């Protein structure tokens, strides 16, 4: 019984933290804000999460998990390679725009690539390369894509997508985002499709 209550309380704090971070952003949110919103003491929050960074990290991990799940669905779909890769890229960027905590982390410089991305992001990147590699492999098997180093091709595609994250989320209006994304998809597909 106690273990269930402990897990429920920890999940509640995480859920409330997601809402508070979404409303105020990382920099303007304090542990006290989260405690008040959850109707808990500050000490209760610290019992489960040692500081704001750890709590925010858990929130972002949860978002990456959500993103990963959606991308796996696209990668496992019955579409041909070109459509699968196109849907993968569009889904990835659309979800990243909607995930406010990852978005906030990128906008406000919280994604310190020495620490933060080194842990959460590295794991996601490795998993993403495997998903894209699977799409490329199937495209080669189905004679849609040129035969080439699948691992290297997947790495280049994921790197290109990562390079667009900040501009898509921070600097550019969404209408321009869609134009740039469509153009990038065309360039990528022309580069790997079988001639």
From TrEMBL:
DNA-binding region listed in the record: 30-49
InterPro entries cross-referenced by the UniProt entry: Homeodomain-like_sf (IPR009057), HTH-type_Tx_Regulator (IPR050624), HTH_TetR (IPR001647)
GO molecular function, one term: DNA binding
Residue ranges crossing the lipid bilayer per the database entry: none
A Pfam family per the record: TetR_N
Keyword entries, A-Z: DNA-binding
HTH tetR-type domain boundaries: 7-67
Entry keyword annotation includes DNA-binding: yes
Listed name of the protein: TetR family transcriptional regulator
């Amino acid at each position: 019984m106690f273990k269930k209550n402990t897990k429920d309380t920890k999940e509640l704090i995480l859920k409330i933290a997601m809402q508070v971070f979404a409303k105020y952003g990382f920099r303007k949110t304090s542990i006290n804000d989260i405690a008040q919103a959850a109707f808990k003491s500050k000490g209760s929050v610290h019992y489960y999460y040692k500081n704001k960074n750890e709590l925010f990290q858990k929130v972002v991990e949860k978002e990456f998990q959500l993103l990963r799940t959606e991308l796996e669905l696209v990668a496992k779909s019955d579409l041909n390679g070109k459509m699968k890769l196109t849907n993968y890229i569009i889904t990835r960027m659309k979800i990243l725009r909607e995930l406010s905590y990852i978005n906030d982390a990128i906008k406000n410089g919280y994604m310190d690539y020495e620490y933060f991305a080194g842990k959460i992001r590295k794991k996601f990147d490795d998993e993403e390369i495997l998903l894209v590699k699977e799409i490329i492999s199937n495209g080669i098997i189905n004679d849609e894509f040129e035969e080439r180093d699948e691992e290297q091709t997947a790495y280049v595609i994921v790197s290109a997508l990562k390079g667009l994250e900040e501009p898509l989320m921070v600097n550019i209006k969404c209408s321009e985002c869609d134009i740039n994304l469509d153009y990038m998809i065309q360039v990528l597909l022309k580069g790997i499709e079988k001639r």
